[in-house]
Amino acid sequence: MKKTLIKLIPKGFLLFCFLPGIVIGQSKYKSFAEFGTTIHSGDNTPLWQVSNQHGLSSIDNNAYLRGGTFYSDSCSNLMFKTGLDLAVAKGFTSTFVVQQAYVDINYRCFGLSIGSKELNSELLNEQLSSGGLTWSGNARPIPQIKVGILDYVRIAPWAQVKAEMSYGKWTDNNYQKEHVGTNYWYTKNILYHHKSFFFRLGKTTSPWQIDLGMSLDAQFGGNTVNHPYIHEQDLGNKIKDYFKILFPIKQSETKYYEGNLMGSEHLKLTFKQSDFHLSAYLENYYDDFSGMGKKNGFDGLWGIEYKSKNKQAINGLVLEYYQTTNQSGPLHGVDESIVKKTGGADDYYNHDVYPGWVHWGMTMANPLIASPIYNKDGNMTFKYNRVKAVHIGWNGDILNDLSYRAKLTFNRTWGTPFKPIPEILENFSTFAECTYCPQKLKGWNFTISGAFDTGNIYGDNLGMQLKIRKFFK
Predict the structure, then answer these.
(1) Do 433 and 408 touch, CB atoms closer than 8 A?
(2) What total of structural domains would you count in the chain?
(3) Other CB atoms closer than 10 Å to residue 349's CB: what's the count?
């Protein structure tokens, strides 16, 4: 391990990590330095020591050094924020990682965000939930330009709204090229589009709150490499293609919408009391109008969340049921005279042209659908997108400066609609983490976790993870 850590540290990086805390003394600046390492036995790093960490993780034994500096300022109705967050690593998919590099400008209720930024699931508890169905914080951030009403704005005594739109670009060309198998293809220079709107209903004095929302995400543009059926490499990288994905239009009976389109519908009901909140929620995934119209049965993420405002043994609790087995039915056809339907067999997160809803090998959606990074044959698509899972996560405080977090998950998979597997695969994952924030050492956090998997999806794994972080102000 000593040799690994020595090799890990390039010249000058320690200076980068600690310089912000030394030279910056104003309260508008915040910075941190972090060291992390994970050691496992078995096939891979356990599921919950890899997942929902914004891609700053690895299925292999690993170690990293990370440093970030953030600045914010405001003047009248104008607010400005910027951040730079870098890491170097051993055992990751790349040695040097630009985790975050962004500039945010907000004027009144309108915002503009440019760059790479860690984003979490809408309406979900990012610490305890298994993750959102189109974006979960599982993969590395996508650099993008985002505009809109980025935070809730009250438009009536009983209603708030927010809406946003963005364009971005995948950054994993080299990863795909290096890891794609002999008989598989990949797509480079993939472009990204996202739009969403959310309503929050309920007066500030009411104990009830309802959140309603809808998001649409897309892969478009780029160039296919070694695709078996597509001879034209360019998938649409002109200005007109940005407008086509903004307003998706069916091209013809034989040529459907351009790009890989998908989205989520969100519903959350919250009961608020002075010392706790209790919520029930549903996030519904759709590939087309059949899923959008909830013809996919019980598919979706169904959950209950308890959240306390006091420090106690259990501060938060999440119980979730996740299903993707229906996929709007088993059949899909374009000739209605034969099949009598054009929805079904949606093959969630996969696509005929794009390898899958994945960035740097990790799904950008819920990690209970195993990411292509686990594929040993170089297949860049999802092999197991029909799953049923039960997940529970909870956290709390043991002492004033000692807290914990835990997760238990059981999931089963039936393969995909077009490639079902002969035997059902199962997996059980557990995770326990403690964080120590000593009062005598202001700004220091020490986090240690243990986890294991058992089953046929992620393998039989046992892992230990350590993170040490120092905050500077």
Answers:
(1) no
(2) 1
(3) 27
Question: Could you identify the residue written with the tokens 């698509």?
Answer: 381
What is the C-alpha separation between 89 and 226, in angstroms, rounded? 31
Whether the CB-CB separation of 192 and 169 falls below 8 Å is answered with: yes
Residue 62 maps to a domain:
no
- Judge whether 219 and 176 are in contact, CB under 8 Å: no
Domain housing 266: 109-464
Place of tokens 């960490």: 53
Nearest CA among 274, 349, 270, 348 for reference residue 303: 270
Confidence of residue 124 (pLDDT cuts 50, 70, 90): very high
Q: What would the two tokens of residue 324 be?
A: 């993707």
Half-sphere exposure of 62 (CA within 13 A, CB side): 26
Residue type at position 89: A
Give the containing element (helix H, strand E) for 244.
helix 239-246
| In-domain check, residue 83 | no
Q: Which amino acid is at 272?
A: K
Please, is 29 exposed, middle or buried when counting C-beta atoms within 10 Å of its C-beta (0-12, 13-18, 19+)?
middle
Q: Residue 23 is encoded by which pair of tokens?
A: 């030279």
| CATH number of the domain that residue 357 is part of | 2.40.160
In a domain, 96, yes or no: no
Supply angle C-alpha 223, 290, 359, rounded to 5: 35
Cα–Cα dist 289/323, whole Å: 18
Res 248: pLDDT: 78
Q: Cβ(111)–Cβ(78) under 8 Å?
A: no
CA distance linking residue 419 with residue 448, whole number of Å: 39
DSSP H/E element including 4 = helix 2-8
Residue 118 lies in a domain: yes
Residue type (1 letter), 239: I
* CB proximity list for 1: less than 8 A, separation 6 or greater: 37, 39
Q: Is residue 80 packed enough to be buried (19+ CB in 10 Å), middle (13-18) or exposed (0-12)?
A: middle
Alpha-carbon distance of 16 to 68, in angstroms, equals 9
d(CA 458, CA 439): 39
Integer Cα distance of 469 and 350 in angstroms: 37
Question: How far is residue 317's CA from residue 46's CA, in Å, rounded to a whole number?
Answer: 22
For residue 27, give the amino acid letter: S
C-alpha to C-alpha distance for 104 and 80, rounded to whole angstroms: 6
- Whether 365 and 373 have beta carbons less than 8 Å apart is answered as no
Using an 8 Å Cβ cutoff, are 265 and 212 in contact? no
Instruction: Give the pLDDT band (50/70/90) at residue 444.
Output: very high
pLDDT in tens, 296-338: 999 999 999 999 999 999 999 999 999 999 998 776 555 544 5
- Comparing CA positions, the residue from 115, 175, 111, 167 lying closest to residue 141 is 115
